[in-house]
Amino acid sequence: MPFSFQGKKVLITGGCGGLGSTLVRAFHENGATVYALDVDEKGLKDLAANIPGVKTLVADVTNWDEVKKTVEQLGPLDHLVNNVGIYIITPNLGVTEAEYDK
Hints:
This protein is α/β, with parallel strands linked by helices. It is 34% helix and 18% strand.
């Protein structure tokens, strides 16, 4: 089923990993202006070399101020794909604020 994201701005966190880079490629091939955000600077350089036209942003999503500053420079976005996170082996009600912020 074809989709068009022509003229749309998409931010994808965790853009260097397996799923992240696949999402970056898919949105890019369907016309979106894609911003790949990741903490892995080398991975972002490789991604940009393999998918010309993709815009890369280095930021650590656990640092809210850093992400806010980075994203504010982009202006309005049409879509956000939150593709980054960790797995914590703790019962839901036992998760601490510090663990949640990871």
